[in-house]
Amino acid sequence: MLIATKHEKEKVIAPILEKELGVKCVVSSDFDTDTLGTFAGEVERTLDPLGTARQKCVHALSDTTYDLAIASEGSFGPHPTFFFSYADDEILLLVDTLNDIEIVVRFLTTETNFNAMNVTSRKSLMEFAKATRFPSHALILKRSKDDFQDMKKGITNWETLHAHFLFLMEKYQTAYVETDMRAMLNPSRMNFIEKVAEKLTAKIKTTCAVCNTPGFGITVVVEGLPCELCNLPTGSTLSYIYSCQKCDFTKEEKYPNGKTKENPMYCDVCNP
Fold first, then answer.
1. Contact between 85 and 110 (Cβ < 8 Å)
2. Alpha-carbon distance 197 to 206, whole Å?
3. Considering only CA atoms, which of 140, 150, 154, 145 is closest in space to residue 170?
4. Residues 6 or more apart from 77 whose CB is under 8 A from it?
5. CA angle 185, 190, 196 (to 5 degrees)
6. Comparing C-alpha atoms, which of 128, 114, 106 is closest to residue 85?
7. pLDDT band at 272 (very low <50, low <70, confident <90, very high)
8. DSSP label at 39?
9. Which of 263, 244, 243, 264 is nearest to 252 (CA)?
10. 159: helix, coil or strand?
11. Helix locations, the chain, DSSP H
12. DSSP state, 26?
C-alpha cells in the first residue's frame, strides 16, 4: 500500500494499517504533494479537501503496480459550531483501484494550535510562540499573510525565530507569524492523524453483510429527532443510513446517539 505524503505521516499511519490489515506500507516519494497546495499559502489549493486527497492517491499510483493508496488532507479555521475556537478538519482516504472503491473518513477536533497574527514587537512574538506550543510546534515568519517573499518555514528554535523576526522588522517594519501545520512539525496534528487512521482502519474492516465489500459505512445522516415537548422534528439526528459501494444493500440505524427524543432547547418551535 502506498502512502502519499512528504510530511512523514507514515510514522503514525503505517503501523496501524500494517498491524490491523496485514499490509506492507511504502511511502510514495515520486510525487510532491505540496504542488496541490500548502498551508502557508504560497501554493493555493484549488480542489476541495477530498478532491485533493484523491489526487494525491492518483498521482502516487500512476506508473506503479500498486492498487492501494492512502492520503490525508487537513483544513484549519474557525470551528463550524464553536465559532470562537479553531478546528482541525482531517480527511483520510483509501483508494482501491483493483476493486474500484474509495473508503474515506473525516473527523474534526479543536485540539489544534492553529493561529496567526501580525507582530510588531518581540514581546508579542514571544507571547504568540508560547501560546502556540513553540518550540515543539514549529512556526512560520513572513512579511504579511499573502506576501511570501523572505518567508521562513519550519522554525523550531528561539534563536532562529528572533533572528528572522529582526530581519523582517528591519526590512519591512512588520512581520506575520503563523503556526506551521505540516504534520512532521506539528505534534498535535500528527496525534490527531493517528486517531483518524484508527477510524479509517475500523471502517475498512467493516464489510457489507451481503457482498462482503470493505468500507460499509454511514452515507446519510437523517435529521428529525422529535422534540420531547411538542413532538415535532428537530435538526438533531434521527438515524444513520449505511450503504455498500458495490451492491444496493443499505441499513438504517435509528437513534444512534442513544435517545429517542430531543430536549426542547434544541427545538426551533419550542425555542425559536
1. yes
2. 14
3. 150
4. 86, 87, 89, 114
5. 160
6. 114
7. confident
8. T
9. 243
10. helix
11. 10-21, 49-61, 122-131, 158-172, 187-204
12. E
7, amino acid identity: H
Do the beta carbons of residue 210 and residue 156 sit within 8 Å?
A: no
Which is it for the CA torsion 194, 132, 115, 79, positive or negative? Answer: positive
Q: Are 139 and 114 in contact (CB under 8 A)?
A: no
* Residue 187: all three cell numbers together: 505534534
Residue 159 has pLDDT above 90, yes or no: yes
All structural domains of the chain, each given as residue ranges with its CATH number in brackets, are 2-112+185-204 (3.40.50.10150), 116-179 (3.30.1490), 217-266 (no CATH)
- In tens, the pLDDT along 75-108 reads 999 988 877 899 999 999 999 999 899 999 999 9
Grid cell locating 216: 460499509
d(CA 112, CA 187): 9
Amino acid at 271: N
Place of cell 497546495: 37
